[in-house]
Amino acid sequence: MKSYLRIDHVGKIFNKGQHATEVLTDITLSIEKGEYVSIIGHSGCGKSTLLNIVAGLIEASSGGVLLEDREVNEPGPDRAVVFQNHSLLPWLTVYDNVSLAVNKVFSGAKSRAERHDWVLHNLELVQMTHAKDKRPGEISGGMKQRVGIARALAMEPKVLLLDEPFGALDALTRAHLQDSVMAIHQKLGNTVMMITHDVDEAVLLSDRIVMMTNGPAARTGEILDVPLPRPRKRLELAGNPIYLKCRQRVLEFLYERHRFVEAA
Amino acid sequence: MNMPLAKTDTASAIPVARPPAAVLPLQIKRAPFGQRAWARLKTTAEHLLPPAIVLALALVTWEILCSGAGSSLPPPSQVLSETWELIVDPFYDRGGIDKGLFWHLSASLQRVGVGYSLAALAGVALGTLVGQSTWAMRGLDPIFQVLRTVPPLAWLPLSLAAFRQGQPAAIFVIFITAIWPIIINTAVGIRNIPQDFRNVAAVLRLNHLEFFWKIMVPSAAPYIFTGLRIGIGLSWLAIVAAEMLIGGVGIGFFIWDAWNSSRISEIILALIYVGVIGFILDRIVALLATIVTRGTAAN
After folding, report:
1. Residues of B whose CB is below 8 A from A75
2. Is the pLDDT of residue B1 over 50?
């Protein structure tokens, strides 16, 4: 079976001295080009570990990740990551944070003027051009995350990896940013893999939702297709039967069949 | 409990179009110049008066205590009159070691400048190595921990034996005194680079040089400057002692020479100069730190 991004029988065991913890077991997942896939699960189930393995920041103990049929086992700009806590460099301005990535990735491919335009273009996409000369310390959490998204988009990644990108934001900012991400995905057709623990967010944004069982030794429990047409509108979906059905399915999985034991 | 229902005012339940609230213009009256100048003067005085009063009190106490006939130390008035020539003409040069205080201080500052610069370069480099590589840390850290407790002057005989000359020996003592806090603080700064920044660098595939300049140095800068600031203070502490022993031109030797000729007033003047210059050096490094780490501190 051929697919754009393939996570093939990936397992991860963390060794801490004598103690070995199996975090992920035999995860297999295919993501098609342009698809938006969410990975949802309770905290501690290893979903961030899975994303880090795809990003190449953590090595898989078994199995591997294939991107366009080539194995990837080290980090690179073709799998840009939007980190949960934005990870902007505080000593650089918003513009410089994005241009650091652009200058590195397109050093040979684009001229200086083209790179400058490309940075501004990506800041425009996330509506952050107005703050380009500010430092991360001077802008709000939602704005920082926008810049983080711009930085990742500016690398023109084959796969965009979002690690709970809206987790640290308040509900209103989160909704606003989700809409932005939907619009960008609609416009650019990126392939996206997103880690989340928010059921509504997963259903609203994704084409498919991968539900993970509880750790240790987490595996893919169920994969749900979200057959909602795009573009999706938050308000119209609130009463949509397909939306509610999908939401119901995810909730049942998370709270009935795989209840978080420690929290109970 | 049988409370009568409060009579609802039906009129208030129906929304009535109310006239919009009047916008009150905010009047900012600029205070007249005299008043503003007075306010500025007042804040300045509030900061300058306490140290001035304390200093005056200290001088008066000193004057009273040392004015007696059998006093072993001169009172401030005598210090001033005896050293007036040195204060007004710091630039004279009668050859040999009979020079004005400017020349002594500049000789000391040059030694500190060279020794401290070398210590800063080597210290940041070694600190980076120790912070970045676990192997280097395990190998070097125990040696550093032992060597850094050796008092600066204890290095001087060894240094003189190795270099056979006063000048490089003194510079080496400054170097070896200043380097430890720089190494240790740099290493801590490098070790404390957040994993997030390392991840960003990994995703961007920054090479070692780019990682060093774009992530490591700015991220560790506050720590590095803490080390540099401690280092400059220690070098200035060590130079006086080292110069007392090696002789030649320098503020340390000037103090020693004054002691040998029983010119106590000159010692006191030299101490004031040493203190003021040490303070200025510390401020310069601190100012440099605020300029360089402007962005990092606002994390």
Report:
1. 199, 202-203, 205
2. no
Would you state the pLDDT for residue A38?
Answer: 94
Domain assignment of residue B38, yes or no = no
pLDDT tens digits for A129-152? 999 999 998 899 889 999 999 999
Q: Does B218 touch chain A (CB under 8 A)?
A: yes
Q: Is B290 on the interface with A (CB under 8 A)?
A: no
Are the CB atoms for A168 and A141 separated by under 8 Å? Answer: yes
Judged against a pLDDT cut of 70, whether residue B10 lies above it is answered with no
Determine which of A82, A85, A89, A151 to mutate to test the interface with B (most B C-beta atoms within 10 Å): A89
- Which residue matches tokens 């204890």? B154
- CATH code, domain carrying B262: 1.10.3720.10
Share of chain B above pLDDT 90, in %: 58
Angle at A119 between CA A138 and CA A50, to 5 degrees: 80
Q: What is the ipTM of this complex?
A: 0.87
Contact A104 B199 (CB under 8 A): no
In a domain, B255, yes or no: yes
Does B203 reside within a domain? yes
Question: Would you state the structure tokens that stand for residue B157, as one six-digit string?
Answer: 């005989």
Does any domain span residue B276? Answer: yes
- Burial, B291: exposed, middle or buried (Cβ in 10 Å; 0-12, 13-18, 19+)? exposed
* Separation of alpha carbons B148 and B156, rounded Å: 15
Q: How many helices (H) and strands (E) does chain B have?
A: 13, 0
Domain of B289, in residue numbers:
84-293
Number of folded domains that form chain B: 1
Pull the structure tokens for residue A14.
């963390």
Average per-residue pLDDT in chain A?
89
Q: Name every chain B residue with its beta carbon within 8 A of the beta carbon of A74.
A: 202
